Amino acid sequence: MWQTRIKIILITTFLLGMGLWLFVFSWTWLQDARRLDESAAMVEGRVIRSSAKRLSRGGHSYTLVVEYAPVKHATITKEFDVGGGDFTTAQETGKAKVTYVPQEPQISRVTNFDVLPFQVLLGLGGLMLLGGMVCLVHACSGRTRPGTI
Questions:
Q1: In angstroms, what CA-CA distances link 127 with 46, 92, 118, 119?
Q2: Please, what is the Cα angle at 33 between 57 and 98, to 5 degrees?
């Protein structure tokens, strides 16, 4: 009986923890992307550092560290994940176009990535939260029987 309870607690904790993290991460990313699409300003930044890494499945991951000066704000230095085209352009010119939210210039991007993967993560996080809540209700109801999960 106690082994079943421990399984339920572990499964519930995993589903609620990971579900909440995925949901908050993707929700924040999507809200920032929406704000950048709606009311963004653009400034040219200076590339300080760049790196490209080969991924295990054959793709590449590109990052740029860019220093940019938003209008009426202090200079900001930030690391960005970027697409291959923006990476190549930045390598050639030493500059990158940074889009930012005027009221909060630390919310910024160089590459406008597709939102679909983050929408999928949001849905997955929601499903995991729902599953965790079902497990929690199941555990609290006391209807577990020995030998079942």
A1: 42, 44, 14, 12
A2: 85
pTM given for the model: 0.80
Query: What pLDDT does 43 receive?
Result: 95
Radius of gyration of the chain (CA): 22
Distance CA 50, CA 97 (A): 14
- Which residue is listed with tokens 């939102």? 115
Mean pLDDT of each 10-residue bin along the chain, 149 residues long: 83 96 97 90 95 90 96 94 94 95 94 94 97 89 59
